[in-house]
Every structure is written in C-alpha cells, then in structure tokens.
C-alpha cells in the first residue's frame, strides 16, 4: 500500500498522526508507518500535556488519563488508545482504570524509562479488563505500595484478553510489590500473556500470574519471572482449567516453591520452560498432573546446566 500523500496533523517525540486517503496512520519523523487501523478511531493520552477537557483526537489535544480515553471509545470498532512516551498515572482505588469497552487496544510508546507507567499508590489500586477482546501492549505496572492485592485483573467471563510486552514490578521501594501481579478469573477464555516481565521481592508476593477458576485456551509464553513467590510464579487455583499452553518462559523463583503449580486435573501443554529454584526433587518444580511436559529444565545451583523435569516417556 502506498502512502505518498501523508499529511501530518501534529506530533510528539518524532511521531505524527494523520490521514492518507481513507487510511489512518501513524508515522515517525522519517515517514515510517507504525499502524494502519480502520475503521476504528484513535485517541491520544499524555500525562505531561493532556487535559480531561480535550477531545484526545491528536497529540496536540491529548487526554491526560487512560480512563478518559476509554470513555470516548466505541465498542467493537477497533479503537486504539496511544500512550505517549513517559506517560505516568498514579492510581489508588480498585478498578481505577477500567478497560470496559469491547475490542479496544491500548498501546504504550517508548522503551526503558520512557515506557508508559501506571503507579499503584495504594494496596487496593487495580487496573481492570472489563470487556471482551481487549489488548494491552508495552505498559509498565509499577508498585508504589506494599502488597498491592491485584495489579491487572481480568474480570470473570471476559474472553480474548491480550497482555503483550508489559512489565510488572519495578518497586519504588524494596517493600513494594504485587501480591498477585495479573489475575485471570473464571471463564476468561483465550487469554494471551506474551513477552511480559514479572518481578517480585521478598515481602508479600503470592504469585505473578493467578489462573483463578476455570478457563480454556489460556496461553502464557515468552515471559520472565524473578523474585520470591510464596506459591508459584504461575499458579492455578479454585477450579481446573483446560487446554493451557505455558511455553518458553524463564523463572527465577527465589522462594522454595514451584515455578508452575496448577490445580489437579488441569490439562494442557507445558513446554520449553526454564525454572531455577531449590526443591527436594526436580519433579516438584512443575506441579501439573494433567498436562503434557516437553523439554522443561530445572536448576537449583549456578552454574549447573539443569535437568529435564518429569518422567521420561516409555516406548509402547
């Protein structure tokens, strides 16, 4: 597709938004196109320059908060919310940010210290996915209180959430952390958690990802877990889930606990994970009696290369 007549409307940090023909596009200062969304609307959020009274349709008229932008979205139209590099929001209450309009995407621009950040300034603070087909990408969830109950909460029955390239942790002080960083509640089918980082200290972290109740086809892949979790890095509780895929994750479990612990009877595939912890037996590092295991490795002492987890299959 050619964009020979791209007209920039406004810009920030080298990014511009405009229209080329009937296509909505975002380009950097060199004219490289970032995304092409149609027919949905695009909204822009910047805590440094935005205002609640703005329309949010350009960077020059950006909104100040994510929730304000969500309120302007239309369900199931493919609307996109862009967060400016360096955007920061502090929250103190449950569901302070509620992504409750189906089919929207929230994308943070920037990396490293410029990755858009949500600060959890109270133990009750949370971000909620309250509708189907929500995508969140490239956002830092930072703890600024000790034992925040839940960071990102996918409400029961909300399907096809995607959490991509997000970071959970980076405590402002050593005692700040999530009890549960991300919770997938009952009936949240098709959730994808991909490329995320979960960091915990040694205070009150229970688990990084809690699969709470029965869900189907949940995928957790390409994630890194560090720090001490009092249950497991990935923990399934309450009711068994089905068809899980837990793949290509690295877990440095500081507590004497498993990397993965699922409810009895949970089904799925656990493959190519690396777990560093210190347990009485290698097999205890993955507790998942109903899942197939492929090429998962356990190590408890550096610089050992690790050993295969699970019982070797017999030839029938």
Structure description:
With 316 residues, the chain is mostly beta strands. It has two domains: 1-84, no CATH class; 85-308, Pectate Lyase C-like. The protein is 2% helix and 40% strand. It has one helix and 32 strands. It has one helix at 66-70, and strands at residues 7-12, 15-20, 23-28, 33-37, 42-45, 80-83, 88-91, 97-99, 105-108, 117-120, 127-129, 135-137, 140-143, 148-154, 162-164, 167-169, 178-184, 192-194, 197-199, 207-212, 219-221, 224-227, 234-237, 244-247, 250-253, 260-261, 268-271, 274-276, 286-287, 291-294, 297-299, 307-308. The strands form four sheets. Strands 5-6-9-12-15-18-21-24-27-30 form a ten-stranded parallel sheet. A hairpin with a 7-residue loop joins strand 31 and strand 32. The longest helix is centred in the first third of the chain and has 5 residues, at 66-70. The protein is globular, with a radius of gyration of 21 Å. The termini are far apart.
The biggest beta sheet is recorded as: 10 strands, parallel
Shape: globular
The number of helices is 1
Strand content: 35-45%
Helix and strand topology:
Elements: E1 7-12, E2 15-20, E3 23-28, E4 33-37, E5 42-45, H1 66-70, E6 80-83, E7 88-91, E8 97-99, E9 105-108, E10 117-120, E11 127-129, E12 135-137, E13 140-143, E14 148-154, E15 162-164, E16 167-169, E17 178-184, E18 192-194, E19 197-199, E20 207-212, E21 219-221, E22 224-227, E23 234-237, E24 244-247, E25 250-253, E26 260-261, E27 268-271, E28 274-276, E29 286-287, E30 291-294, E31 297-299, E32 307-308
Parallel strand pairs: 5-6, 6-9, 7-10, 8-11, 9-12, 10-13, 11-14, 12-15, 13-16, 14-17, 15-18, 16-19, 17-20, 18-21, 19-22, 20-23, 21-24, 22-25, 23-26, 24-27, 25-28, 26-29, 27-30, 28-31
Antiparallel strand pairs: 1-2, 2-3, 3-4, 31-32
């Amino acid at each position: 597709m050619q964009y020979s007549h791209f007209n920039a409307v406004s810009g920030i940090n080298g990014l511009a938004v405009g229209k080329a023909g009937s296509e909505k596009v975002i380009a950097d200062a060199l004219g490289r196109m970032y995304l092409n969304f149609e027919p949905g609307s695009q909204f822009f959020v910047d805590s440094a320059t935005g205002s609640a009274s703005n329309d949010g349709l350009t960077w020059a008229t950006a909104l100040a908060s994510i929730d304000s932008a969500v309120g302007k979205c239309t369900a199931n139209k493919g609307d996109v919310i862009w967060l400016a590099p360096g955007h920061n929001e502090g929250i103190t209450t449950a569901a302070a940010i509620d992504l409750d309009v189906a089919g929207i995407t929230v994308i943070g621009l920037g990396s490293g210290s410029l990755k858009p950040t949500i600060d959890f300034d109270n133990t009750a603070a949370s971000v909620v996915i309250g509708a189907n087909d929500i995508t969140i990408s490239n956002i830092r969830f930072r703890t600024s209180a000790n034992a925040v109950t839940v960071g990102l909460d996918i409400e029961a029955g909300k399907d096809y959430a995607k959490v991509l390239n997000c970071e959970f942790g980076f405590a402002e002080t050593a005692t700040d952390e999530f009890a549960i960083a991300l919770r997938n509640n009952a009936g949240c089918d098709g959730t994808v958690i991909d490329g995320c980082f979960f960091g915990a200290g040694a205070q009150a972290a229970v688990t990084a990802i809690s699969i709470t109740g029965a869900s189907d086809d949940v995928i957790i892949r390409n994630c890194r877990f560090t720090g001490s979790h009092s249950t497991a890095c990935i923990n399934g509780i309450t009711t068994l889930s089905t068809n899980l895929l837990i793949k290509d994750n690295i877990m440095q479990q500081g507590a004497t606990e498993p990397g993965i612990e699922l409810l009895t009877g949970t089904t799925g595939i656990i493959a190519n994970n690396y777990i560093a912890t210190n347990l009485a037996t290698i097999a205890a590092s993955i507790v998942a009696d109903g899942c197939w295991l492929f090429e998962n490795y356990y190590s408890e002492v550096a610089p050992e290369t690790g050993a295969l987890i699970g019982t070797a299959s017999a030839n029938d």
